[in-house]
Amino acid sequence: MRYLFLVTFLVLCHSTMGDDLVQQTCKKASDADKNLNYNFCVSALEASPKSKGADLAGLAGIALDLTTAKATSIKSTISKLLNDPKVDKPALQDCEELYSDATDDLQVATNAFKSSDYGTALTHLSATLNAPDTCETGFQERKAVSPLSKDDGDFTQLNIISLAFINQLRG
Question: What is the three-state SS of 87-133?
């Protein structure tokens, strides 16, 4: 019985510590960058089962994976929207190119991160920050409503989180 209690206690402590690290890391990141939304950071990372018990490098990897997944999801959304006659196609095609370039840069950033080459990871991750803003600007210039606004905002947040966490690793 004591053994069962001890195991349960350790599992609960380990789980809580992982959540605490997520909250602490998001707090530190949001304090350093006012564009980073603390609540978004915590909810995005805690939604990943891998965040339980992860260290800072693990959380940075999760954030980078989430950023890449969001870019891939946006590209898929764009492909579907290109068949919608109500959507501004030229603006959407520009977004498609921007996110295609972003996914290429994210692949380089991920490979660099896995090799602990944080400088290169940060450079390529930073290069992807212009995709959502430029995408949104394209719709605004054409006086069209962007169907990607929420996705673009989420991508920006995930990108900022990834940058902040890798910067924390870099010291």
Answer: CCHHHHHHHHHHHHHHHHHHHHHHHHHHCCCHHHHHHHHHHCCHHHH
pLDDT in tens, 30-48: 999 999 999 999 999 999 9
Q: 160 is written with which tokens?
A: 């900022």
Decide: 61 and 169 in contact? Cβ < 8 Å. no
Instruction: Answer whether residue 18 shows pLDDT above 80.
Output: no
pLDDT tens digits, residue range 74-83? 999 999 999 9
**CA separation (Å) from 74 to 59, 92, 93, 97?**
22, 11, 12, 11
Candidates 102, 64, 65, 97; CA nearest to 78 is 97
To the nearest 10 degrees (0 to 180), the angle between helices 149-170 and 130-141 is 160
